[in-house]
Amino acid sequence: MKIADESVVSFHYTLKNDGGKVLDSSDGQEPLVYLHGSGGIVPGLEEALNGRGKGDKFNVSLPPEKGYGVRDERLVQKIPQDQFPNGGSDVKPGMQFQVNSPGGPMVLTVTAVTNGEVTVDANPELAGQTLHFDIEVTDVRKATADEMSHGHAHGPGGHHHG
Ligand code: ZN
């Protein structure tokens, strides 16, 4: 069967940036499983998978607007270091904090610590990047009624309910 709304799709992927560096991959792991049409993966990848079938292999490059979005420089802020726990002495670039914002929980990544100021960035890590995916579709099946009502895939690689 071909991938369409109400398909549960399993696929292997390797994600590279413009420089060819591997950012993420399912290599050596179970394939990723998602419910097609549910917005469970980035929009451009869902578009690229539409109409494909089991065994299909392809490459697709997605501009930021079809991936994790463009960067918003308003989401970069400087915070006095002494507002962090322990006076901020433990804060280092690369650390991540989850904070509550009016729009819901946000992940802040520390990008710099200079002169008593901590620069934090709330953009998704891959915002503003062109994404290059190598894809191999390993399975396509029809979603169950439960999966449709939950809006996600169940079983290996999907959601597990206790
Ligand atoms: Zn469920």
What's the SSE pattern?
A: EEEHEEEEEEH
How would you describe the shape?
A: elongated
Span between N and C termini?
Answer: 31 Å
User: Which spans of ≥5 residues are poorly predicted at pLDDT below 50?
Assistant: none
For this structure, what is the CATH class of the largest domain? Alpha Beta
Give the bound compounds.
Answer: zinc ion
> How does the helix and strand content classify structurally?
mainly beta
The CATH architecture category of the largest domain equals Roll
What is the CA-atom radius of gyration, in angstroms?
A: 19 Å
Helix content: under 10%
* Mean pLDDT over all positions: 94
Largest sheet features: 5 strands, antiparallel
Count of discrete domains: 2
- Strand-residue proportion: 35-45%
Record field, number of beta strands: 9
Number of helices: 2
Q: What is CATH's topology name of the largest domain?
A: Chitinase A, domain 3
Write the layout of secondary structure elements.
Blueprint: E1 7-16, E2 22-25, E3 32-35, H1 43-49, E4 57-62, E5 76-80, E6 96-101, E7 104-114, E8 117-121, E9 131-142, H2 145-150
Antiparallel strand pairs: 1-2, 1-3, 1-9, 4-9, 5-8, 6-7, 7-8
Zinc ion (ZN) binds at residues 150, 152, 154, 159, 161.
Give a short synopsis of this structure.
This protein is mainly beta and 162 residues long.
